[in-house]
């Protein structure tokens, strides 16, 4: 998949960089980095709407916020080289090591997951993947059926399998992600993780003990009715892919579908919500 990288210089930086990041996420941008006082925002070519982007920038200029930006087109074939050159192993509380094939193994960790990132989301570097990996360690997966929506590299489903899940079912709308996740299952000798290309409507009409959805706020809200149908009574739902300022909105929306919020976790403005199905 081709991407656009848009580098934005914003003045004043605070609070506008954080606010703009959240609003860019609403219009399809899916990852962000900050470097040398600039914000780098990334959006897939198919999700980029130039009119929406320009309208948003104009809103900020009307608020007397100074914004300059440069747009760069990044072909899909460039991502592997970029990831490999910058990719470092991820150490999660000295318990989980998420590493690429070109990193050395380390037997001192309780769990090790080998991920070839390619062009899929989910290497453990992003705050949401890190948070979910950390807090899934506290969950009893023994003999549980798990659904991983928007699986990306498959890292969370692979982790669930390694933590004892009976079965894992994963979906992703990107064919490349599905192929990558299947390859990563093979790398980790995971055989109980089935992955299909498609959205939530293609998930078998079964009940799952644990549902994991690391996507974005708008998709999570749109999927909530399906999560309710697919989650067992007293089952767990983990939501992520949004900002800490969205916690109240998503918790309230989930409540409409009989989910109670148990806990929420934050890391660098990103968040995870842990919920349970009440009926």
Automatic annotation (TrEMBL):
GO biological process per UniProt: methylation
Gene Ontology CC annotations of this record: cytoplasm; ribosome
Tree of life domain: Bacteria
Database matches in InterPro entries: Ribosomal_L11_MeTrfase_PrmA, Ribosomal_PrmA_MeTrfase, SAM-dependent_MTases_sf
Binding site for S-adenosyl-L-methionine: 129, 150, 172, 214
Keyword Ribonucleoprotein appears in the UniProt entry: yes
Family the entry assigns: Belongs to the methyltransferase superfamily. PrmA family.
Protein name: Ribosomal protein L11 methyltransferase
Gene from which this protein is expressed: prmA
């Amino acid at each position: 998949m081709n991407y656009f990288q848009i580098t934005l210089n914003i003045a004043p930086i605070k609070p506008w960089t954080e606010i703009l990041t959240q609003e860019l996420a609403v219009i399809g941008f899916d990852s962000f980095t900050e470097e040398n006082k600039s914000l780098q925002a990334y959006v897939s070519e198919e999700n980029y709407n130039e009119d929406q982007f320009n309208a948003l920038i104009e809103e900020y200029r009307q608020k007397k916020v100074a914004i300059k930006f440069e747009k760069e087109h990044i072909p899909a074939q460039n991502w592997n080289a970029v990831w490999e050159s910058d990719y470092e192993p991820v150490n999660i509380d000295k318990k989980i090591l998420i590493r690429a094939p070109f990193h050395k193994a380390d037997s001192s960790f309780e769990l090790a997951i080998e991920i070839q990132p390619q062009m899929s989301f989910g290497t453990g570097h992003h705050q949401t993947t890190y948070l979910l990996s950390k807090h899934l360690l506290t969950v009893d997966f023994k003999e549980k059926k798990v659904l991983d929506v928007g699986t990306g590299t498959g890292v969370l489903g692979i982790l669930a399998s390694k933590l004892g899940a009976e079965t894992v079912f994963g979906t992703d709308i990107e064919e490349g992600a599905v192929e990558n996740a299947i390859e990563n299952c093979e790398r980790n000798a995971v055989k109980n993780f089935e992955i299909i290309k498609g959205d939530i409507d293609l998930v078998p009409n079964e009940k799952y003990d644990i549902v994991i959805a690391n996507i974005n706020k708008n998709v999570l809200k749109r999927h909530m009715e399906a999560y309710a149908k697919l989650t067992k009574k007293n089952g767990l739902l983990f939501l992520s892919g949004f900002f800490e300022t969205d916690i109240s909105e998503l918790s309230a929306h989930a409540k409409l579908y009989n989910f109670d919020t148990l806990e929420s976790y934050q890391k660098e403005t990103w968040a995870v919500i842990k919920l349970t199905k009440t009926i």
